[in-house]
Amino acid sequence: MSKKLFFLLMIAAVLSFAGLMLGQGQGRGGRDDQLNLPDGPGKDILQSACTECHNLQMAVGTGYNREEWGLTLERMITAGAKMTPDQIPVVTDYLLKNLAGEGPKPAVIVPGSVTVSFKEWGLPTKGSRPHDPWAAPDGSIWYSGMYANVIGHVDPKTGQIKEYHLKTPRSGPHGLVGDKEGNIWFTANSKSYIGKLNPKTGDVTEYKLPEGARDPHTPIFDQKGTLFFTVQGANMIGRLDPKTGDIKIVTSPTPRSLPYGMVVSSKGVPFLVEFGAPKVASIDPATLAIKEYPLPHEESRPRRIAITSDDVIWYSDYSRGYLGRLDPKTGNVKEWPSPSGPTSLPYGITTYNDIIWYSESGVKPNTLVRFDPKTEKFQTWTIPSGGGVVRNMMAMKDGNLAIAESGINKVALAEVKK
Ligand code: HEC
After folding, report:
1. Which atom of ligand 1 is nearest to the CA of 14?
2. For a Cys-Cys bond, which of 17, 130, 148, 188 suits 171, CB 3.0-4.6 Å?
3. By the 8 A CB rule, do 145 and 130 touch?
4. pLDDT single digits (tens) 133-184
5. How far is the CA of 76 from the centre of ligand 1 (A)?
6. CA–CA separation, 27 vs 366, rounded Å?
7. What dihedral do alpha carbons 223, 227, 229, 234 form, nearest 10°?
8. What are the residues whose beta carbons fall under 8 Å from the beta carbon of 411, sequence distance 6 or more?
9. Ligand 1 site: residues with CB under 6 angstroms?
10. Using alpha carbons only, what angle is made at residue 256 by residues 252 and 258, rounded to the nearest 5 degrees?
């Protein structure tokens, strides 16, 4: 598939689908011919460099300041926008003057007794779009630099960052997970393979997916070391045996269900959320039979998933702004409105010691949210740098949280005081 088509599909799936259908696309999804761009320096560049993958409505009403536009434009350039870094100031001036707008709502902050502090690291390649973090057992953080085509490693003790460049250009590394030998496995979202990076040598082994299995999304190991993964764009779920390289793939029973985030239960059963449907699903690790669990609200779009020690499923309902709880044993669902409300876009989510942590990606700044299932109480913090859409987070072994900040090119560690 061409790069352009890929981006169109990705935007269709991720933005129009998630954002526009949610009614917040008023300013951002319409057609360019409704845009009356005043003349001025930078207009030509915008019209030529910014219309290849999406229309210019995308740049309307972001509420971005100069720094945020700088980071966004760097990310678009790394994604492939035909513009040079020295054109950033003039384009930013134009955007600030003509397409400013209000941007997302401020976050609602819920105080509480837990103390959290943040450390954040800027990444070496500009606009790399760190998508997911993986919290390694040694206390370090791996991340996928989706647009920079790298798997990166942050050592929080020294602040040292190392990037491993992938051999296939524009692979679009997306989700990642480590194995027991220290290899990092990732989904190559743009090139339809599963990769295995050996950090000792920098070598990458590529496991090509069958024809049509596009947009592999989240990889995860079960307790036996078998890799499971969602294939968002192709509406599929797969299994890879690392010993033989054998791949089996099945299709979700719900059309266009966008199989998304995934976890594995204590019994070795993978569970996933369907971002294109109001459903959670599980997959039989042996037969790959899929069982779906409907959520009570038709408009729900669960985007990421987490699990507690009782094998209860927690999900971020991106479209409705809720935190949800599904007990697969009974099918019962309970939901809580996220503190910042219906447009808060809850996204990256994880658990530690049966406490739920997630981020609201639709408020400015993005928040870190803590939810205690025992007391049903929320506490929230703003992420100091703004977060820039936290697409995923993961608890470290010690209960701190590894956070990828996709829009602002940073990786963060939230230190939770014990
Ligand atoms: C090579 C394809 C491509 C080109 C060219 C491109 N974009 Fe994007 N743009 C994307 C993709 C993919 C997304 C959605 C994912 C993301 O946010 O990174 C996006 C999202 C956006 C967003 C919304 C997300 C955010 O962070 O606010 C804005 C604003 C934006 N683009 C502005 C621009 C501008 C301005 C230009 C011209 C300099 C441009 N884009 C050129 C691919 C492109």
Report:
1. 14
2. 188
3. yes
4. 999 999 999 999 999 999 999 999 999 999 999 999 999 999 999 999 999 9
5. 5
6. 20
7. -150
8. 120, 121, 123, 130, 133, 141, 143, 152, 154, 402, 403, 404, 405
9. 7, 10-11, 15, 49-50, 52-54, 58-59, 62, 72-73, 75-76, 79-81, 83, 129, 407
10. 75
pLDDT over 50 at 17, yes or no: no
> Could you tell me the distance, in angstroms and rounded to a whole number, from the CA of residue 101 to the centre of ligand 1?
17
Contact 377, 112 (CB under 8 A): yes
| C-beta pairs of 9-13 under 8 Å, 24+ apart in sequence | 9/214, 9/215, 9/233, 10/215, 10/233, 11/53, 11/54, 13/215, 13/232, 13/233, 13/258, 13/276
144 CB-near residues (< 8 Å, 6+ apart) = 130, 131, 132, 150, 151, 152, 173, 174, 175, 176, 186, 404
For residue 139, report the phi and psi dihedrals to the nearest 5 degrees.
90, 5
| pLDDT tens sequence across 280-303 | 999 999 999 999 999 999 999 999
Q: Are 339 and 380 in contact (CB under 8 A)?
A: yes
**What torsion, rounded to 10 degrees, do the Cα atoms 369, 371, 376, 382 define?**
-20
311 token code pair: 């094998």
Given a cut of 60, whether residue 4 has pLDDT beyond it is: no
Q: From the centroid of its chain, how far is CA 209?
A: 21
* Torsion angle (degrees, nearest 10) of CA 80, 81, 86, 90: -160
Rounded distance from Cα 32 to ligand 1 centre (Å): 15
**Structure tokens that stand for 109 in this block:** 């902050």
Residue ID of nearest Cα to ligand 1 atom 3: 53
Q: Kindly report, residue by residue over 75-84, the tens digit of the pLDDT.
A: 999 999 999 9
Question: Residue 82 corresponds to which tokens in the numbers above?
Answer: 């035909």
Count of other CB atoms within 10 angstroms of residue 163: 17
Query: How many Å apart are CA 275 and CA 210, to the nearest integer?
Result: 22
CB 162 within 8 A of CB 184: no
